[in-house]
C-alpha cells in the first residue's frame, strides 16, 4: 500500500531553506523572520549578494574560478590556500555549530554570527509597496 503522505509536497523558504507543510505557514514564517529584499548571502571577494545560497555558490564558481580562492560551504568565507581551507573546514566539523537563525550559514565564533546578522539580515531592496512609508510602519 502506498502512503499518500510520501508524495505530499512541502513548501520551502528559499532564503533559509526551511520546509513548511503549507503555504500559509511559509507566509507566516516570511512575515515574522525575513525582511523585504533581505539578501544574507554575500560574496566576500566582490559585492555580489543574493537571497539564495545557491546563487552565491554559483557566482563564486563562475566569477572567481581563476583566483585559486576556496569558498567554505558552511559560512561562505573565502580562503586563499588549500591548507587554510582544510584547517577552517575541519574546525567547522569539530566545533559546535553556531547556526544563524535566519539563514543556512554556520559560524565558528559567536562574534562572527553576530556580525553576519547585523550586516546581512536587513532590507536591501525596498519593494514598490513599501516605498514612501515612514520607517517602522507595519
Automatic annotation (TrEMBL):
Keyword Nucleus among UniProt keywords: yes
Coiled coil: none
Statement: the UniProt record of this protein carries the keyword Coiled coil: no
Domain spans labelled BED-type: 51-113
Keyword entries, A-Z: Metal-binding, Nucleus, Repeat, Zinc, Zinc-finger
InterPro entries: Snail/Krueppel_Znf (IPR050527), Znf_BED (IPR003656), Znf_C2H2_sf (IPR036236), Znf_C2H2_type (IPR013087)
Name listed for the protein in its UniProt record: BED-type domain-containing protein
Amino acid at each position: 500500500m502506498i502512503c499518500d503522505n510520501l508524495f505530499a509536497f512541502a513548501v520551502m523558504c528559499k532564503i533559509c531553506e526551511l520546509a513548511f507543510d503549507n503555504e500559509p505557514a511559509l507566509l507566516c514564517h516570511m512575515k515574522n523572520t525575513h525582511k523585504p529584499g533581505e539578501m544574507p548571502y554575500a560574496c566576500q571577494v566582490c559585492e555580489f549578494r543574493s537571497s539564495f545560497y545557491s546563487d552565491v555558490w554559483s557566482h563564486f564558481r563562475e566569477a572567481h574560478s581563476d583566483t585559486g580562492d576556496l569558498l567554505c560551504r558552511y559560512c561562505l568565507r573565502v580562503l586563499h590556500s588549500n591548507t587554510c581551507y582544510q584547517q577552517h573546514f575541519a574546525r567547522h566539523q569539530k566545533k559546535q555549530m553556531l547556526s544563524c537563525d535566519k539563514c543556512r550559514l554556520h559560524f565558528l565564533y559567536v562574534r562572527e554570527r553576530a556580525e553576519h546578522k547585523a550586516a546581512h539580515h536587513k532590507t536591501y531592496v525596498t519593494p514598490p509597496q513599501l516605498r514612501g512609508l515612514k520607517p517602522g510602519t507595519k
